[in-house]
């Protein structure tokens, strides 16, 4: 007779010679059970290949080990690293991630939150969409679960927020270019409704004015996160404004595209701006690929994995104490100097 592929908790109890309730207590790490009995149950579980139905167990005990994480773009390296840090922290405390993507859409974010609450998550981390953030917080409050915000920029002071210091990142990058001798510096990438871009341009403009250098609107160019579009914009910018000797690039893809735009106008990327044929270039959000270009890209790096870990710590703390005051954690940037500036 063929062995059933689905092993039940009653099979484990029979094999171990104990009651079903004893097996349940052992698997749930509850009650006062002798070591000998625990060993017998664990041996039975291993011998039979029993897999516990955590979802059903959670429903019975009104406990969940699932944490929802709704990120903006699953292909974005920033969120990849954040997710790794969040997952690492939660797994150390026997919790698992339930992952979804909003694609920067308010209705999609709300839909994801609704689905996660219906699935009984114990907490939610989310990347905000401005017009939906308040509703997400209200939904979490009604469900009596904690929420934290993980993103490149904050949109609400009423929720725990973990993110990078965009203003300081731009100051760091701009100061580095000025120290290298650059006096005409442009900013490429991002859209006008981006809070991250606004914070970075604030740091960039403040630094230029502090040093008495030109801060011109026509040197601040919007561009989608697309190499081809970035190349076209940079080519046009350098053709119209040949005095520009350095570029700040909003994202890694913008920096990569900028390299092609620079080549199209007969110049190269590098540190020697005095010759007049080289353009200094710094990008934000360092990636491994930045070290592989020729020349390699000088980048601003933020501790994205640490952001995820902090978010996990905050969620776990708030699950234990729901009345904890909202806190903000702004993590400092680091300049990774390579060959492009």
Nutshell version of this structure?
The chain is of the alpha/beta class and 341 residues long. Helix content is 44%, strand content 16%. Pfam families: LacI, Peripla_BP_1.
Q: What can you tell me about this protein's structure?
A:
This protein is an alpha/beta fold and 341 residues long. It has helices at 9-16, 20-27, 35-48, 54-61, 77-91, 106-118, 133-142, 166-179, 195-210, 227-240, 252-264, 304-320, and strands at 66-71, 96-101, 123-126, 147-150, 160-164, 185-188, 220-221, 246-249, 268-269, 278-284, 298-301, 328-331, 334-336. The radius of gyration is 26 Å and the shape is elongated. The mean pLDDT is 89.
Unreliable stretches, pLDDT < 50, 5 or more residues? none
**Number of structurally distinct domains:** 3
Q: Work out the helicity level.
A: 40-55%
What is the name of the CATH superfamily of the largest domain? Response regulator
Overall geometric form: elongated
Number of distinct helices? 12
* Count of β-strands: 13
Query: How far do the termini sit from each other?
Result: 72 Å
What is the name of the CATH class of the largest domain?
Alpha Beta
Query: What is the CATH topology descriptor of the largest domain?
Result: Rossmann fold
The averaged pLDDT comes out at: 89
The ordered string of helix (H) and strand (E) elements is HHHHEHEHEHEEHEHEHEHEEEHEE
Main sheet summary? 7 strands, mixed
Strand content: 15-25%
The CATH architecture term of the largest domain is 3-Layer(aba) Sandwich
Structural category is alpha/beta
Radius of gyration: 26 Å
């Amino acid at each position: 007779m063929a062995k059933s592929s689905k092993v039940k908790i009653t099979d484990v109890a029979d094999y171990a010679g104990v009651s079903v309730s004893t097996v349940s207590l052992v698997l749930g790490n509850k009650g006062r059970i002798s070591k000998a009995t625990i060993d017998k149950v664990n041996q039975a579980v291993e011998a039979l290949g029993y897999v516990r139905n955590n979802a059903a167990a959670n429903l019975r005990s009104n406990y969940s080990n699932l944490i929802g994480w709704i990120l903006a773009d699953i292909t974005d390296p920033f969120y990849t690293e954040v997710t790794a840090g969040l997952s690492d922290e939660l797994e150390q405390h026997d919790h698992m991630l339930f992952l979804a993507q909003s694609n920067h859409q308010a209705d999609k974010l709300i839909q994801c939150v609704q689905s996660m609450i219906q699935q009984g998550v114990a907490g939610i981390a989310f990347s905000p969409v401005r017009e939906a953030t308040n509703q997400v917080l209200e939904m979490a409050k009604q469900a009596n679960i904690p929420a934290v915000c993980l993103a490149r920029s904050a949109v609400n002071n009423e929720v725990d927020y973990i993110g990078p210091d965009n203003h300081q990142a731009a100051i760091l990058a701009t100061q580095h270019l000025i120290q290298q001798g650059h006096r005409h510096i442009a900013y490429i990438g991002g859209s006008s409704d981006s809070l991250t871009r606004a914070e970075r341009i604030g740091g960039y403009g403040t630094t230029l004015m502090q040093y008495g250098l030109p801060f011109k609107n026509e040197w601040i160019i919007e561009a989608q996160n697309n190499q081809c579009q970035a190349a076209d914009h940079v080519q046009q910018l350098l053709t119209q404004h040949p005095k520009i000797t350095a570029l700040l690039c909003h994202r890694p893809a913008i920096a990569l595209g900028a390299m092609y735009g620079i080549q199209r106008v007969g110049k190269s990327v590098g540190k020697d701006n005095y010759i007049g044929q080289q353009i200094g270039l710094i990008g934000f959000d360092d990636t491994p690929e930045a070290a592989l270009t020729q020349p390699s890209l000088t980048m601003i790096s933020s501790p994205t994995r640490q952001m995820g870990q902090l978010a996990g710590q905050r969620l776990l703390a708030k699950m234990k104490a729901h009345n904890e005051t909202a806190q903000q954690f702004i993590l400092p940037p680091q300049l990774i100097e390579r060959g492009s500036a």
